[in-house]
Amino acid sequence: MRKIFVLDTNILIHDPNSIYNFRGNDVFLPIEVIEEIDKLKGKPDTGIHARMATRVIEEIRQKGNISKGVELPDEIFFKVIVDTGKDCIPEGLRKDSTDNSVLGLTLKIKNKYPDRKVILVTKDINLRIKADAIGLEVEDYSTDRVVYDELDKGYAEIEVSKEVFDKYDKSGKIDISELGLDYAPTPNFFFIIKCGQEKTSGRVIGDKVKKFINGDINAWGARARNDEQRFAMELLMDDDVKAVTLVGKAGTGKTLLAIAAGLEQVVERKKYSKLYIARPIIPMGKDLGYLPGSEKEKLRPWMQPIFDNIELLSDFKGDKTGEKVIIGLETMGLLKVEALTYIRGRSIPNGFIIIDEAQNLTPLEIKTIITRAGENTKIVFTGDPFQIDSPYLDANTNGLTYLAEKLKDEKIIGHITLVKGERSPLAEISAKLL
Q1: What domains does the chain contain, in order, with CATH numbers?
Q2: Most distant pair of Cα atoms in the chain: their distance
Q3: How far is residue 235's CA from residue 242's CA, in Å, rounded to a whole number?
Q4: pLDDT band at 296; cut points 50, 70, 90
Q5: Helix, strand, or coil here: 120?
């Protein structure tokens, strides 16, 4: 039997095309959701998606009367419900809340169609709790959901015979078929190859595993301290890998390695014309409100972690004036640190782009950003899926893990999950136990 899905506002903001992902079912949209979308158009963080959602609904409206219902491809029936549902809001819930109106309307629809399964779809955790409490079926939007616990780390440890180990160690390469695997590794996958106490490593390139050298280089004063960082550095320094995702907890070196590799290739090796570093502006805790000063001064608190990393790298190189290094690079046009908002809508050729804190981005935002990459541009996404500040994302639904999973079979994509903390013993202990 066809189901009825009632969509909350955040579903359309998360994915403006979500209406088309409920094949063979009915999609009902409360009229108050359209009002909420209209209010979000002027906001910097949701405005683009709100306008996209409005355009999708307008295209459907041109096909028929949306209050009576419109037939869409894949046997989808779409309808806007012109009813606030306030008369069905359960006792104890505020009558002036849009969320509660959506609950009331869903209850009304459920009562109208007692023989149909009616499901509220929302990314709002509190709304899901309330819906469940009053007896409604409720779901998160699962179309772009990735199970983070099943995400490949990008590397694996394998035990081989002495004969295979010596052959690989001597020639520096070996056919994947000779490793005795029961699975097919993805491109740019790394292996820690062991035989007793002996150990070496390699990377999947084509149908072979080959040794690499970039993982051990000194990039702008920084050198990898563990296997995962070596794998990450190998991907960051390889011109053939156009997009890299670095996932890991705080202190594993994701951002530091990315910035070090970027500065090395832009300033020292001149492979790219400019290093772009951007991050979403989402506060942790209570927002401070508007900040005084110029654009650069306003952004400084948000970008301070980036500047801290550059100053640390300058110390590694023996230059104790990190601030002067930053100013010098910006003056020469080699470094651009900016809010993620300013990257949208641009085409960036011949650049090395780092998107920090990418776990706070939706899959659609990730797509919007990665399509900015022009000719000879490399883009690196870093983040920790367990430090998400967005109220509608989690480890399974954020854009960073979505990107790592969906593009893992492409030869120009690389992914590494960093596990070992290298910031300090205190940071490592805290990340594990707190």
Answers
A1: 4-139 (3.40.50.1010), 226-433 (3.40.50.300)
A2: 77
A3: 9
A4: low
A5: strand
Would you state the structure tokens that stand for residue 251, as one six-digit string? 């202190």
- pLDDT tens figures, 98-143: 999 999 999 999 999 999 999 999 999 999 999 999 999 999 998 8
Q: Which has more pLDDT, 246 or 325?
A: 246
CA–CA gap between residue 128 and residue 134 (Å, rounded): 10
Strands 198-205 and 190-195 turn out to be antiparallel
Q: CA–CA separation, 177 vs 181, rounded Å?
A: 7
The Cα–Cα gap between 33 and 5 comes to 14
CB 418 within 8 A of CB 258: no
pLDDT in tens, 26-60: 999 999 999 999 999 888 778 888 999 999 999 99
- Burial of 167 (C-beta count, 10 Å sphere; 0-12/13-18/19+): middle
Helix (H) or strand (E) holding 424: none
Interacting residues of 169 by C-beta distance below 8 A, sequence separation 6+: 198, 200
Q: CA 253 to CA 187: how far, in whole Å?
A: 23
Q: Which residue has the higher pLDDT, 285 or 379?
A: 379
| Token representation of residue 370 | 């990665």
Q: Does residue 290 carry a pLDDT above 70?
A: no
- Specify which residues 7 forms β-bridges with: 121
User: pTM for this one?
Assistant: 0.86
Q: Write out the two tokens for 357.
A: 């804190």
User: Do residues 202 and 210 make contact, with C-beta atoms less than 8 angstroms apart?
Assistant: yes
Q: Which of 320, 340, 291, 309 is nearest to 422 (CA)?
A: 309
3-class SS at 227? helix
From residue 122, alpha-carbon distances to 1, 6, 130, 374 in Å are 22, 9, 11, 35
Tokens of 59: 């295209």
Please write the tens of the pLDDT for every residue from 166-176.
999 999 999 99
Span 318-333, pLDDT tens digits = 665 667 888 888 899 9
Burial status of residue 428 (CB atoms within 10 A of its CB: 0-12, 13-18, 19 or more): middle
* Pairwise CA distance, residues 76 & 93, whole Å: 32
Give me the pLDDT at residue 285, please. 43
